[in-house]
Amino acid sequence: MPGVEVKVDGLSKSFGRANIWSDVTLTLPPGEVSVLLGPSGTGKSVFLKTLIGLLKPEKGSIVIHDTDLVRCSESRLYELRKLFGVLFQDGALFGSMNLYDNIAFPLREHTRFAESTIADIVAEKMEMVGLTGDEKKLPGEISGGMRKRAGLARALVLDPEIILFDEPDSGLDPVRTAYLNQLIIDLNAQTDATFLIVTHDINTAQTVPDNIGMLYRKHLAMFGPREVLLTSEEPVVAQFLNGRRQGPIGMSEEKDSAQAERELAEAGELDGLPPLKPQLEPSAGLPQRRAVGRRRERVESMLHTLPYAAQEAIRASYTDEAPTQWMPAVDQPTVQMPVVDEGWHHRS
């Protein structure tokens, strides 16, 4: 059974007079892996907390299994939260509990399983994340990467249909981040759950997701198939993917347009987008991700509505002939962007 579809429509969130973001609309396709990017301070973690019902938005809806989480009763919200597994930035483990008890905690809180059944489930999830044999270790005795994996095992024990990852690469070096990215793909192949990852890591965005969104200037600037954002010529996208100073993103907030134009003029000609990397595949011995076939059918139905460079990248990915650099197409007709329900969203 694939993970559940999550439909977000017109979501707005503020703290007092401070608006975090407005009119966020997207659909997380069932069983697929999606990534949410954005400069620091754009409210990506706030979005995750709103998605799971920990924060209440001022406007909009979040529909799962035909129920709007924003307007449902507290008892119904409590039940729907069981559909979610969450990996927090630091793993959020209890320091006084060993890994076994940390991972068993949701089962003891939310089920009436016998301890023998709990032991079987914990052993299965610890094996999935590569922690077999570490059951008796305390969180303070293990590395940051192991804490992330323990937190992920705990997120999996109730077999959630939706798994949220809040900056899973936070505090990890590039090698451990690469291992974690592969683990995420492997887990998606084994669970077919719907994944949403909030991250700053460009390599994660380039190699892990089926879909990518970007929060910028208090709106969802983009959301759709990964190839759309990774081939976009939008200045904010190019700046973010290249990790360079020149562009509309500033140190603490977006720059005004005059400052951004001055910097670009001073810098001269800048390199375009980084090379398009292939998406990670499950490790040897694991099944293929069931979401791949569903995604291909979905994306092919909307292919004609996508920007030309994205169309070419998608076609190339089907023939394993992905190019190393995408250039703007010459004399191509203007493409009308489809609506969110078709899987692609763009705001200027």
Primary descriptors:
alpha/beta; seven-stranded mixed β-sheet; four-stranded antiparallel β-sheet; P-loop_NTPase; Putative ribonucleotide transport ATP-binding protein mkl
Topology record:
Elements: E1 6-15, E2 18-28, E3 33-37, H1 44-51, E4 59-64, E5 67-68, H2 74-81, E6 84-87, H3 99-110, H4 115-128, H5 144-156, E7 162-166, H6 174-191, E8 194-198, H7 202-207, E9 211-216, E10 219-225, H8 226-230, H9 235-242, H10 257-267, H11 291-302, H12 308-318, E11 345-346
Parallel strand pairs: 3-8, 3-9, 6-7, 7-8
Antiparallel strand pairs: 1-2, 1-4, 4-5, 9-10, 10-11
Helix pairs in contact: 3-4, 3-5, 4-5
The largest sheet has its strands arranged as: 6-7-8-3-9-10-11
The CATH topology label of the largest domain is: Rossmann fold
Q: Give me the CATH architecture of the largest domain, please.
A: 3-Layer(aba) Sandwich
* Helical residues, percent: 25-40%
Spans of 5+ residues with little confidence (pLDDT < 50)?
266-270, 321-343
Instruction: Please tell me how large the radius of gyration is.
Output: 21 Å
Structural class: alpha/beta
Q: Note the total helix count.
A: 12
GO molecular function: ATP binding; ATP hydrolysis activity
Keywords: ATP-binding, Nucleotide-binding, Transport
Region (Disordered): 269-295
Pfam family, one: ABC_tran
Q: What would you note in describing this structure?
A:
The protein is of the alpha/beta class and 348 residues long. It has three domains: 220 residues, 3-Layer(aba) Sandwich (Rossmann fold), CATH 3.40.50; 39 residues, no CATH class; 73 residues, no CATH class. The protein is 36% helix and 18% strand. The chain is built from twelve helices and eleven strands. The strands form two sheets. The protein has a seven-stranded mixed sheet. Helix 3 crosses helix 4. The longest helix has 18 residues. The radius of gyration is 21 Å and the shape is globular. The protein starts with 5 loop residues before the first strand and ends with a strand. About 8% of the residues have low confidence.
